[in-house]
Amino acid sequence: MKFSEIAKELRQEYGFSQKVLGEKLNISPAAIGHLELGKHEPGSIILLAYANYFHVSVDYLLGREESWNSGIADAPLPEYTAEERNLIKSYRELRPDLQDLLLDTVALWQKQNAPSEASKKKA
User: Fold this and answer.
1) Who's near 85: CB < 8 A, 6+ residues apart?
2) CA-to-CA separations, 21 to 76, 92, 118, in angstroms, rounded
3) Is the dihedral of CA 112, 118, 119, 123 positive or negative?
4) DSSP string computed for 8-25
């Protein structure tokens, strides 16, 4: 796949218009359109902007990797399910204060549902 196809697919997957994505990446909507049509090839700054925003590797953007997360060294799983990708996407779209609140809530749930020391010893 070419960068133009991958860029358009990522934008559409996130439900962004070219204008909204341009605002997020500090790139004009016209430039986004030209990239998606293959009229212009992305330079390193554009590639890094896409990679950082969408949390994908540059190799993925260039079509050198088939999976969006195969080049991410800290990914705990080789692939994510669609539900996991949607959860990650939703989390990344939250304001930082809401991300913190969500993480605190998850930590609380984990603590409440963790087996107690007594039940661990019985097992």
Assistant:
1) none
2) 28, 14, 52
3) positive
4) HHHHHHTT--HHHHHHHH
The whole-angstrom separation of Cα 50 and Cα 60 is: 11
How far apart, in whole angstroms, are the C-alpha atoms of residue 58 and residue 71?
A: 9
Q: What is the pLDDT along the chain (123 residues), one digit of tens a residue?
A: 899 999 999 999 888 999 999 999 999 999 999 999 999 999 999 999 998 888 888 888 998 876 655 444 444 444 667 788 788 888 888 888 888 899 999 889 988 887 765 555 555
In the 3-class helix/strand/coil scheme, how is 58-115 assigned residue by residue? Answer: HHHHCCCCCCCCCCCCCCCCCCCCHHHHHHHHHHHHCCHHHHHHHHHHHHHHHHHHCC
8 A C-beta contact, residue 60 and residue 53: no
Q: Which residues are within 8 A (CB) of 31 and not within 5 positions of it... i.e. 6 or more apart?
A: 22, 40
- The single residue listed with the structure tokens 């554009």 is 46
